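ugh ok fine here u go
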Amino acid sequence: MKNFNKLLALALALMMCLSLAACGGSSSGSGDAAAPAADAAADAPAEDAAPAETAQADAYNIGICQLVQHDALDAATAGFKQAVIDGLGEGNVNFDEQNAQGDSATCSTIVTGFVANNYDLIMANATPALQAAVSATDVIPILGTSVTDYGAALADPDMDPAAGTGINVSGTSDGVPAQSYVDLLFELVPEAKNVSVLYCSAEANSVLQADQFKELAEAAGATVSIFTFADSNDIQAVVTSAVDGADALYIPTDNTAASNMTIITSVCEAAQMPVICGEENMMANGGLATVSISYYDIGYECGKQAVEILANGADVSTTPIGYAADPVKEYNPAYAEAIGFTVPEGFTAYSPEA
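structure:
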């Protein structure tokens, strides 16, 4: 019996050891499985801590806020990025490029993120993007492009573009003197008496251009009627009203209109309406003529400004606003043919391959 009790005690001890070993093995196994997940979480970047395009950790970080996607703004962004890469080297810059899809409130959200991430520079493509960036920071350098009038955009009518803005803002302009469009109108339609102007009422740059055009065209003897739409939902109805009784239609460099040229063209072409556009890409998508500048070029010039500020210590507040060089009179042969319009000599035919 004594031996039996010893054997029983040994058996119980052995069972306890096996049980403890099993528990220890289970605990150890669970820890091993959790370690890779913890390591992965530790290695993962913070959700908003790095730009979308990753380069070297010590590279310059640039946030790009583009108001809306259309050919002109896309070209300006492409030119900007290429100039920065040319000046700093591809491995020395991270771009966080975001599109607000035409919503000014989204611009504010985007640039607030840039500021929270303490980016080195913000590029704002179009006036609402610029205004959102200015509201978000007075420290980080901001460069605009595709902005018609910086004085109007910054509510500083006395600003001298050649001397800089005096704040943490500079950039390049897509502005062409309003007189150039008035001259273009009367060269194409010499007998024009009733002229309609079409734009989105939410775009300050369009309001400025429309007012300037109206004043000059009326001084030249035309009657000018303004037609505005609040967003893309009412464009077709407003365009239909604008072409009724008009001899010609002028559309400034309006981003909402540029994004909806298919709708505008469907109405204007049916009405055989000569359409003067604020820029080349609008014209190419359904206008008759424009005073053309290169949006890629003004974007590229803006990128060169960025290089000077980031790499060479230039002061953004005294950096002069840049302008497009050598605007040219250009027409769209396809639209001219569609409305049966003969364009006089002295105009360059638009070619998408050019």
